[in-house]
Amino acid sequence: MASKVVIASDHGGVKLKSVLVDYLEKLKIPVQDIGTYSEDSVDYPDYGIRAARRVSEHKNEKGIVICKSGIGMSMAANKVRGVRAALCLNRKMAELSRKHNDSNVLVLGAAFVPGEKAKQIVETWLKTPFEGGRHERRVKKLNDYEEER
Fold first, then answer.
1. How far is CA 30 from CA 14, 22, 25, in A?
2. Residue 2 pLDDT more than 50?
3. Cα gap 42→113, rounded to integer Å
4. How many domains does the structure of the chain reveal?
5. What is the distance between the alpha carbons of residues 87 and 71, in angstroms, rounded to a whole number?
6. 73 is in which domain, residue-wise?
7. What is the pLDDT of residues 22-54, one digit of tens each?
8. How far apart, in whole angstroms, are the C-alpha atoms of residue 69 and residue 57?
């Protein structure tokens, strides 16, 4: 059985990723850490795309990707068909990204979100369901556009 959450970072997010892996494990949430594991420079697309593909291919239910700003990982993850990656800087953004956009990849910027705040964002994001309704129509439009390409 695949892990519920896949998590990845580049070198700019590796410390925050480590904090979140420990946190998820303490919560007994299955997590798969696919790297990177040091602060040696790496290319964020390698990790963001790999994590997003695991979500797109249903090997993991959700993904979390982290880089210094969150912007690079957002761009990388959103290149993958079926992924709706949301860069969230606070709990409200995390909540709305799930309720209204059915985000399946959470993006964090390590330079802007310290460990304790990141834990709160992750907790909110994981526990918030998609509302559906009028939002379902909008997410379907995104999916339909993706299929046209």
1. 19, 11, 7
2. no
3. 21
4. 1
5. 7
6. 5-148
7. 999 999 999 999 999 999 999 999 999 999 999
8. 26
Report residue 1's pLDDT band, with 50, 70 and 90 as the boundaries.
Answer: very low
Kind and range of the H or E run holding 109 = strand 105-109
Chain centroid offset of residue 130 CA = 15
The pLDDT tens digits for 71-98 are 999 999 999 999 999 999 999 999 999 9
CATH number for 111: 3.40.1400.10
Catalytic residues: 67, 100
Average pLDDT for residues 52-81, to the nearest whole number? 98
For residue 65, the cross-strand partners are 8, 107
Identify residue 105 by its one-letter amino acid code: V
CB 5 within 8 A of CB 32: yes
- The rounded Cα 139 to chain-centroid distance in angstroms is 17
pLDDT score at 3 = 67
Burial of 129 (0-12, 13-18, 19+ CB in 10 A): exposed
> Model-level pTM?
0.96
